[in-house]
């Protein structure tokens, strides 16, 4: 049976839960539909996060992203919906989702949505001599 799009996000145990480290994911082939015209919208989705106990599984993420292909969605809504779904799935310490949408009507749009787990502060940068 061929693979199908899915809204189910799978996770796996963080292999280094005591560490603050950043996972960066770039998805250059995101598509959804303009809710006004029904025409396709194209974007690159960027996900940066500091995992806590769970990490997003990439194959499930690919199928999740694919699930938007036939949906009408404003850029702002789809970006914030993704963040909410990712938070629900893996409860990260920090997460940022950015959608950089291709030109539509002569206008480029970038939407950034962020989450910080209550009480979590990023480590201070180290200055080396």
TrEMBL record:
Binding annotation for substrate: 56-58, 75-76
InterPro entries recorded: GTP-CH-I_C/QueF, NADPH_dep_7-cyano-7-deazaG_red, QueF, QueF_type1
Pathway the protein takes part in: tRNA modification; tRNA-queuosine biosynthesis
GO biological process: tRNA queuosine(34) biosynthetic process
Keyword Flavoprotein: no
Cellular compartment(s): Cytoplasm
Superkingdom field: Bacteria
Annotated Gene Ontology cellular component terms: cytoplasm
Keywords: Cytoplasm, NADP, Oxidoreductase, Queuosine biosynthesis
GO molecular function: preQ1 synthase activity
Pfam families (alphabetical): QueF (PF14489)
Catalytic activity annotation: 7-aminomethyl-7-carbaguanine + 2 NADP(+) = 7-cyano-7-carbaguanine + 2 NADPH + 3 H(+)
Active site residues according to the UniProt entry: 34, 41
Keyword Oxidoreductase part of the UniProt annotation: yes
EC number: 1.7.1.13
SUPFAM superfamilies in UniProt: Tetrahydrobiopterin biosynthesis enzymes-like (SSF55620)
Family: Belongs to the GTP cyclohydrolase I family. QueF type 1 subfamily.
Function: Catalyzes the NADPH-dependent reduction of 7-cyano-7-deazaguanine (preQ0) to 7-aminomethyl-7-deazaguanine (preQ1).
Protein name: NADPH-dependent 7-cyano-7-deazaguanine reductase
Organism: Thiohalomonas denitrificans
Gene behind the chain: queF
